[in-house]
Specification:
single chain, mainly alpha
Length: 184
Amino acid sequence: SEHEMTRKSAAYFLGYCKTPQYAERLMPLLEDDKAAGGAARSLGKWGITNAVARILPQLNHEKERRRVLAVNALSDIGEPAAIPYFLAALGDPVFTVRKVARGALARHGADAASAALGVLENAPPVVQREIMGLCVDVGYLAATNALAELCRHAASPSVKSDAQRCFEALMPLEPASGSDVPSE
């Protein structure tokens, strides 16, 4: 349609229909600033993996809503190649983007938690807190050593506090070993 609102609405509402046969017709709308979010959402709902590369740039869009739609679309597609991009989105300045990115990572389970743990030590505090929460979300027991280390050495008091809480949340999941949070 020549009317941008019609294109935007149609692209969005197609996602409510199981009509992936229209994916190729929807792909050009990823370049249409008004319809791109709706197109990404529908392509995500349909699990169109060849849309991933064209949706990824939307993770850097100036509008929060577009970034949220992009994370959700990529999460719905379930492509593991998006994990590093979700990790980067944990540092987004907007809370909602960080939360949907964490949820997208949680859908990838231990693979995502392992990747996140690899960047935990050098990440900014806001990202560290999201990673710790992710490890609890997926019950990632391999994080206990890193959490214990943050309990002892994190520069930020809020990170230390969150590390303690997350460590304790994971400990009941760990087989009884008699170990507690290491103290200084």
